[in-house]
Each structure stands twice: as structure tokens, then as C-alpha cells.
């Protein structure tokens, strides 16, 4: 490649882009629900500990790998593999994983876009009916939304790192923060809202079972975009005088704060609608909450703010989720794009067309696996249950391979690239980090208990999802 590597224009640009990647649908919906069901404040506490003690070191490892090699994940692992073919496998996994996660995440984002458009068209009452979701996801309009979304995201990517990814993050992220805070401020003034806050925050340590701990850990890991090759890629766009530990901390803090704040929106909204609700009955899945449960709650707001007010509230919420999803998709689709450019020497445009063409087809396969096409709907049988193509992609790449990727990053950085080289890279831009307690902790943790933790999660997921065996 002749052209110089693209870089983020500023530290803030990098931080917003990485935070945009990390903040997604899960932060806004899955996290608040999981926290409420699993011990409130106690869950928040262990989640924060996982972020600091386990996720931050992995985040630094990925960023350092990318920045040191100035390459996409495949290239990064190859450069430092010392010629070993085996050590190049994590690179390929860090290419295929984001590629496939993007595929199923695209489909969910398409539904969010559809719900936003429907709400703006005055149809909130329809969205709030039980049958609508099924009808909507099986309607041909999903393909129109899919094309529109692909054009938007790839349009951002086509403008490059600084003018596309960074500029989009600088516009969209402040907007996301403002909308989120605005919605929270509005909903907290509503009757019974405070009950929701109580449910969300009051700690119940008895709920912290091994199962809860393992899913809190998995959630923290996924939420921060770890194991997806994204931070390796974004690290390669970082300038070397910028502090990796410092930036990683800000990104992790932002992601966690957004997830926390979303709880101050979701729970009060639900309790305003029904102060007697038993939150343990809420759906675990973000999709179940966003498309089946929340529309009913939004519609019920019409009693206090009228139908137009309720529709406006719902539309702003769907827009918020859409923005969060778009910045995540931008980051994840950039990984295969960067790989095609670095490894195959393609120009940005051609790489985008290539990735986009395959993804649109696979996303369409996912979209038709809710009844439109029988073969994709009943694609495989896992642990005795029918799984669609969509389910399979999610289970393999989101649930299973992510912790494996995280594990491989830790082992690679500490035992193949070696501690001393990793340290050297971290010190670049963070001179105070050398010899600090944090540095010793990061080195020790990455080489010992973090990979063990991730291995346990990996084994547990494989046993549960593929064989129906539950250890906890
Ligand atoms: N935090 C995201 C979520 O809550 C998960 C995620 C992180 C993600 N990075 C991503 C999803 C990139 C899609 C693409 O949903």
C-alpha cells in the first residue's frame, strides 16, 4: 500500500468513535433489565468491577496490538506471530467474528429503523399490539430498510476514518448523550418513576449467583467491543503519542455511564406505566423489550401527554437506539473493510462494496429466518431446539466466539508478543504508566486469571448452547 495509513484527527475523535462502538442496543435496554432482575445496585457494583479488573486490561491489549502494528487484526496477528501459522488463527477469528456479528446486528437495527419510521407516521398504536412485530419483521419493507441502512453506514465508511467514522461519532455521540439525559429528565418527573429508580438501585446481594456473575461478565465484555477486532483496528488509527491506558479508561467509563443512565430511563418509564409490575418478568432479550414490551408502555404515556406526545417520546427513544446501533455497526464493518485494504491492497471503496455485497445477502438470510423462508427459519437443531439462521449466527459469533477471541488476545499479547514489548507500546503516550501498580496489574491479570475467566465462560456457553448442559 502506498498511501499513508489513515488516523483519527484527535484524541477526542478516537474516544468518541470507540465509545460509539461500545454503546449499543445492549447498553440501552439489555443492561438496565439485567441489572434490575439480578440484584440492582449489587449487579451494578460487580459489573463495574468486571469492567475495571477484567475488561480494561483486554481493551489495552487490543489497542496496543493495533497501534503497534498499524494493521487490521489479520495483519496485526500475522506481523507478531513470528511466522507461526497457529498464532495467525486469532487474526482470522477477529475478522470473521465482526463480519458475522454485523450481519445479525444489521437485522435488529433494521427493525429499529422500521419502528422509528412507523412511529413518525403516526402508527404507535399499531406497534403496541401483540401481533404487529411478527407481521412487521416478515414484511417486504424490511428489505427496503436494510438497503437504506447499508447505504447510510457504508456511506459513512466511504468517507474514511477522519471524515467518516470520526465525524459521524463527533456528531452522533453528543446527540446521543443529550437525548438520553433529556429523556431521563422528562421521565423522572412522572408519577411513580421513583419506584423504578428504587428497583434499579437498591442492592440485593443474594441475587448474585454464579449464573448472574457469568452473564454480567459476558455483558461487560461484549458491551466494550472486546473480542471483535474493532479495538485492534481502531488502535491502528490512533496516533502514538496518545495514551492507551488513559483513552481506554475514558471509553470504558463512557460506555458504563451510558448503560447506567439508560436504567434511569427504562425502569422509571416502566414503573410509571405500572407501579405494581414485577420486573423479574421482563424479557431478557433486547429485542423482546424494544419491539414487544416498550411500545405498549410508550402508548400508555398518552394518558398523561396525549397521543402525539407519546408518539414523540417513542420516536425519540427509537432514534436514540438507532444512533447507538449505527455507530456500533460503523465500527464493526470497518474491521473487514480494513482487512481487505491492508491484506488485499483494495482501495476503500472496493473493500466497502465487497464487504457490503456479501453482508447484505447474509443479512437477508437472517431477515427471512422468522417465517418468511422455512429453510432458514428451521435451520438447525441445537440442544434439542429448533434454531433459525439468525439464532445460529448470534449463538456462534456473539455468544461463543467472543470470549474465545478475548482469551486468545490475552495469551497472544503476553506469551507470544511478550510482556516487555506490550509494556513498551503502552508507555508510548503514557510515560507515567511504566512501573506503576496499574501496569503490573495489567500484565499479571492478562497472563493469568483473565484468560482463565474467559475460558470458563467459553466452556459454559458451549455446554449450554450446543449441548443443553448447564453448569450453574
Ligand atoms: N455494546 C453493544 C451493545 O450493547 C455491543 C457491541 C459492542 C456491538 N460493539 C459492537 C454490537 C459492535 C455491534 C457492533 O449492543
From TrEMBL:
Membrane-traversing stretches: 12-35, 41-65, 86-117, 142-160, 172-189, 216-238, 250-273, 305-330, 351-375, 395-415, 444-467
Main location as per UniProt: membrane
Keyword Transport listed: yes
Domain of life the protein comes from: Bacteria
Record membrane topology: Multi-pass membrane protein
Signal peptide location: none
Keywords: Membrane, Transmembrane, Transmembrane helix, Transport
Pfam family, one: SNF
Record's subcellular location: Membrane
NCBIfam families: Na_transp
Protein name in the entry: Sodium-dependent transporter
Species per Swiss-Prot/TrEMBL record: Microbulbifer aestuariivivens
Amino acid at each position: 500500500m502506498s498511501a499513508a495509513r489513515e488516523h483519527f484527527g484527535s484524541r477526542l475523535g478516537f474516544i468518541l468513535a470507540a465509545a460509539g462502538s461500545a454503546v449499543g442496543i445492549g447498553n440501552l435496554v439489555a443492561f438496565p433489565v439485567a441489572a434490575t432482575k439480578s440484584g440492582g445496585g449489587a449487579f451494578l457494583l460487580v459489573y463495574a468491577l468486571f469492567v475495571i479488573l477484567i475488561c480494561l486490561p483486554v481493551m489495552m491489549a487490543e489497542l496496543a496490538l493495533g497501534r503497534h502494528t498499524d494493521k487490521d487484526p489479520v495483519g496485526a496477528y500475522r506481523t507478531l506471530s513470528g511466522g507461526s501459522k497457529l498464532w495467525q488463527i486469532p487474526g482470522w477469528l477477529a475478522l470473521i467474528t465482526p463480519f458475522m456479528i454485523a450481519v445479525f446486528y444489521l437485522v435488529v437495527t433494521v427493525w429499529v429503523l422500521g419502528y422509528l419510521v412507523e412511529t413518525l407516521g403516526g402508527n404507535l398504536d399499531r406497534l403496541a399490539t401483540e401481533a404487529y412485530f411478527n407481521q412487521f419483521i416478515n414484511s417486504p419493507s424490511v428489505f427496503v430498510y436494510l438497503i437504506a441502512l447499508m447505504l447510510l453506514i457504508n456511506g459513512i465508511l466511504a468517507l474514511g476514518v477522519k471524515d467518516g467514522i470520526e465525524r459521524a461519532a463527533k456528531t452522533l455521540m453528543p446527540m446521543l448523550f443529550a437525548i438520553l439525559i433529556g429523556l431521563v429528565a422528562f421521565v423522572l418527573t412522572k408519577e411513580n418513576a421513583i419506584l423504578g429508580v428504587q428497583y434499579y438501585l437498591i442492592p440485593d446481594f443474594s441475587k448474585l449467583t454464579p449464573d448472574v456473575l457469568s452473564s454480567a461478565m459476558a455483558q461487560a465484555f461484549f458491551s466494550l467491543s472486546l473480542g471483535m477486532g474493532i479495538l485492534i483496528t481502531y488502535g491502528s488509527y490512533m496516533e502514538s503519542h496518545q495514551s492507551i491506558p488513559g483513552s481506554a479508561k475514558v471509553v470504558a467509563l463512557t460506555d458504563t455511564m451510558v448503560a447506567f443512565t439508560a436504567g434511569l430511563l427504562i425502569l422509571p418509564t416502566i414503573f410509571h406505566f405500572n407501579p405494581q409490575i414485577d420486573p423479574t418478568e421482563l424479557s431478557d432479550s433486547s429485542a423482546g423489550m424494544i419491539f414487544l414490551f416498550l411500545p405498549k408502555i410508550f402508548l400508555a404515556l398518552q394518558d398523561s401527554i396525549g397521543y402525539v406526545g407519546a408518539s414523540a417520546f417513542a420516536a425519540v427513544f427509537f432514534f436514540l437506539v438507532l444512533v447507538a446501533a449505527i455507530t456500533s455497526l460503523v465500527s464493526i464493518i470497518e474491521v473487514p473493510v480494513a482487512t481487505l485494504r491492508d491484506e488485499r491492497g483494495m482501495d476503500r471503496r472496493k473493500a466497502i462494496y465487497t464487504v457490503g455485497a456479501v453482508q447484505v445477502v447474509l443479512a437477508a438470510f437472517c431477515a427471512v429466518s422468522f417465517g418468511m423462508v422455512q429453510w432458514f427459519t428451521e435451520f438447525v437443531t441445537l440442544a434439542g431446539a429448533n434454531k433459525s439462521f439468525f439464532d445460529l449466527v448470534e449463538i456462534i459469533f456473539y455468544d461463543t466466539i467472543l470470549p474465545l477471541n478475548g482469551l486468545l488476545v490475552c495469551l497472544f499479547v503476553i506469551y507470544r508478543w511478550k510482556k516487555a514489548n506490550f509494556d513498551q507500546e503502552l508507555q508510548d503516550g503514557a510515560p507515567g504508566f511504566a512501573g506503576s501498580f496499574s501496569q503490573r496489574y495489567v500484565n499479571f491479570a492478562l497472563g493469568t486469571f483473565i484468560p482463565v475467566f474467559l475460558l470458563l465462560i467459553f466452556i459454559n456457553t458451549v455446554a449450554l448452547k450446543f449441548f443443553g448442559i448447564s453448569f450453574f
